[in-house]
Amino acid sequence: MITFKSEREITRMHEAGKLLAACHKLLRQKIKPGVTTLEIDRFVDEFLIAHGAKSEQKGYRGYPYATCASINDEICHGFPRAESLKDGDIVTIDCVVNLNGALADSAWSYPVGKISTEARKLLNVTKKALYIGIAQAIAGNRTGDIGHTIQEYVEGRNYSVVRDFTGHGIGRNIHEEPQIFHYGTKGRGIQLKEGMVITIEPMVNIGTWFSLLDDNGWTARTVDGMLSAQYEHTIAITKDGPLILTSQDD
Ligand code: MF3
Ligand code: CO
């Protein structure tokens, strides 16, 4: 069932989103060689609690951490680790904030120290894929318009779009309908309407999109060991177009 949000509910989700965006902006400074993703996880957990919020991911279907921290060939749902990040790594930090019952979801890929040109290009293409997808998130368009636009852009640059994980509606629950595929056919899928709140969160791989699940039952990684990146925003469909609730202003 698709749930529609009132202006008031969207404002509350926007407050949650602003807090998550502020947290991500702090991570830009914090993420560097020598830091561990467990330290990052603890920082995010404590930052949210200090601001009267909490991580909605912790305990979600038994997920044990406040954040997902996916390094290099990990696509998503990486477990935070006690191992130090190394110069040249890329790491995606994903978190869902709950602020007084209102949720917002955003993932961001970060460079660790000095990264290769190849990795930098992947980050740029993935972030661009998110924003061109968001531009399609307008009332009257269909979910397929978002997916098609992202797929065409990404594959046109010889990268691949992960198929096994998608964006989603979000409201009282992290995952609501509709599912937002990052590939697809123009004009197909569910029609977007004012009051819907969705995530768009393309995961883009340098090699094939095929993924493998780790023994922990959560972490997905590329089968070929090549890099994967992800950027995710929570977006409200409004009469004035897409409103990015988790905007960091870029
Ligand atoms: N933020 C993730 C998403 O976009 C949620 C992951 S669920 C968790 O769907 F349990 F792994 F946290
Ligand atoms: Co999400």
How do you describe this structure in short?
This protein has 250 residues and is an alpha+beta fold.
Number of strands: 15
CATH topology name, in short, is Creatine Amidinohydrolase
The global form is: globular
Query: What about the largest sheet?
Result: 4 strands, antiparallel
Tell me the fraction of residues in β-strands, as a range.
25-35%
* Residue windows where pLDDT falls under 50 for at least 5 positions: none
**Which CATH class?**
Alpha Beta
> How many structural units, i.e. domains?
1
- The name of the CATH superfamily reads Creatinase/methionine aminopeptidase superfamily
Q: Could you report the average pLDDT, rounded to the nearest whole number?
A: 98
What distance lies between the first and last C-alpha atoms, to the nearest angstrom? 32 Å
**Could you estimate the helical fraction of the residues in percent?**
25-40%
Bound molecules: 2-amino-4-trifluoromethylsulfanyl-butyric acid, cobalt (II) ion
CATH architecture: Alpha-Beta Complex
Count the DSSP helices.
Answer: 4
Structural class of the secondary elements? alpha+beta
**H and E order:** HHEEEEEHHEEEEEEEEEE
Looking at how many chains there are and whether they match, the oligomeric state comes to: single chain
